[in-house]
Queue: 3 jobs
Job 1
Amino acid sequence: MGLSQRQPGPLLSLLLMGALVWPPPCMSLELIPYTPQITAWDLEGKVTATTFSLEQPRCVLDGHAAVANTIWLVVAFSNASRDFRNPQTLAEIPAFPRLLTDGHYMTLPLSLDQLPCEDPVRGGRGIPLLRVGNDPGCLADLCEPPFCNTPLPSPGPYRVKFLLMDASGSPQAETRWSDPITLHQGKAPGSIDTWPGRRSGDMIVIASILSSLAGLLLLAFLAASTVRFSSLWWPEEVPEQLRIGSFKGKRYMTHHIPPTEAATLPVGYEPGLDPLPSLSP
């Protein structure tokens, strides 16, 4: 009679089945001691209403990434960064539309040869930065990959981190999350305060000087206009010798009268008015 085989108990059977079904625990990623941050270069528009510029992680990932690894930038709303789960395959990489639904997406895939250790000389043409949200037309292009770098839709705030993935899409290492990054936000026209009391002292002084100059120019114009029109309405005084009744003509004769006869003319005789006396005896 053979030995009877003991069947495992119910509890042991459940444990064996759980060991077969339960997936092995995921190995924790290597944490790179690096925190992404806004570039320190003195540039205009480092942070705008739809973009922000990060410094490139040069000489930071070389010892943690292989040549075939891809360096991705993860962008998430600050309150959604804690819920982000690293994708395990290339198909799970979230594209930009996921930002509006899940609060995060991945963009700007780079290789190690695109991040050399040699930092360009200040003032050179190449500036080592990564501008997030710098491609406004990528979503309209159907041939563009889905991981485009489209402008950000709101002021945020956002947090970012770098994630290293191999050729199959398996994560290999990651950096810390950045500090919250808030974009600039324009003011509504109705919210702008135009009350003069809010203006600075320099603006008040400049406005006062301009108002005084405008008043002086107006007074000068009125004075010149008054002088001009007064000369038209009031003619200048007529000279004394041209006044009516003051003209005196000299005595003259219109006919030649011999001197001997002129002496015999009566006193007060005006030539041309009184008839000449008869010369006959």
Job 2
Amino acid sequence: MEMKKRLTLELRNKKPGEVKELVLDNCRSDDGKIVGLSSDFENLEFLSMININLLSVSNLPKLNKLRKLELSDNRISGGLEVLAERTPNLTHLNLSGNKIKDINTLEPLKKLPNLHSLDLFNCEVTMLINYRESVFKLLPQLTYLDGFDADDQEAPDSDPEADGDGLEDEYENGEGEEEDDDEDEDDLDEEVIDDEEDEDDDLEGEEEEDGVDDEEEDEEEDGEDDEEDEADDDLPRGEKRKRNLEDEGEEDPEDEEDDEDD
């Protein structure tokens, strides 16, 4: 994609003056030069132009508020005096993977008083003897060169995502969510257990009621039988025997004799 078209897409109907960060990585520069970028981007603080086949920064506009400039993986070999003229407040500069061969090529950067981080990874200049000592001597304002200070102490990463702080927070939140889920599951399990216990209690209560009803019915039947037996006991002996025979479907022998006499 051409650089001008990429700029249009990145703006997304915003005015240049409203943009603070601009990423143009992997697009195509015009004959190795910057095109489409103007001083209208007056509030730009971060500009990234990685791998755009850039040969020179001569077309870089005046960007007074620019703090961080990413120019890695291009073919820049010199002309760094433009940076001192047009980005006076630059604090971070990444020139890794460019064609910088000599320490003297970096001399224009002396005019950037706020520059405290410079990256030159994969540049030929890094192969020189006493490379680090020479650069720190040339650029005394530098705090970090290729990610380390003069005492070989690593630079702290100011990007929370790069630090992994954001990931740790997310992970911790994830754990908290998992714990909450576990607690919810425990609560559900307890509710299920309580429901099952309530059902068991209800069933036991119904069984007990059924048992009471059955016992009452049995007692009522036994009571009726007892009443009948008591009533029979009150009858004369003959009447009682006659009644029993009638219940059994037999006739009283006395009645048979009476019939024979007749």
Job 3
Amino acid sequence: MGCSKLIALVLVPALVAVHVHVPMASAANSNLFRDYIGAIFNGVKFTDVPINPRVRFDFIMAFVIDYTTATEPPTPTNGQFNIFWQNSVLTASAVAAIKQSNPNVRVAVSLGGATVNDRPVFFNITSVESWVQNAVSSLTTIVQEYNLDGIDIDYEQFQADPATFAECIGRLVTTLKSNGVIKFASIAPYGNADVQRHYQALWASYGSVIDYVNFQFYAYGASTTEAQYVDFFDQQLVNYPGGNILASFTTAPTTTSVSINTSLSACQTLQSQGKLYGIFIWAADHSRSQGFKYDTQAQALLANAPAGY
């Protein structure tokens, strides 16, 4: 996700009128923890990850992408999504098992990502109607096969203008929700001007159907201080008014991202200010080599928040 991602890879169209944005309730302390998983192809399993029973826990499998690797370089498929997470390990039966043994767990899938076979992934469409129709159909098949609960939007490069992106993604989420295919949706922007233009356009038109904002705060520089992190967080409360903004950090080996300790300190400050709706981590694949130390710490912090969805 953002500059820190590394990916190892070996129905009917919605008839939606102009959608008026109705802001959701303002974010407050909550106990939502989210962990991306499956993009690095290192064999990490759901059962490897410690799950605190006092948090709401979302696994987000990374990724499904409307690209094909049948061509070189990989090419876009106009909304026909294919699986690019390590589905030989994170199988449909594994999803069912982790949810059955942990009633507080939901499983989602992220759309897009940064690269396929080290090539950039672009949001690229033929037309709004055809992209939405293909996306609804292909994602419905994947979500139902794996018994998933939601989707996450993580396109980071665009060959479409913000209004087109907003209409495609907004209609997709609206249709999947109205069809009962998904229960929730999130977006994963970061502090890049073009990325923000696209996601803020989506929020302005369809924010009422987006449940969480997985903002990639770790994409800011390594010199970021705790106070600056909190300021960046407050900026997103303005950029996505009424949204449930999640704090975040990466456990990937990097010297260019906000440090984990700075991020966790900022999370404590945000919680003391009543603004920590949740935390997400990129990614469980990396956390395994650290014994999931920081995943455990983040969940322990959130476990002090009120329970309930």
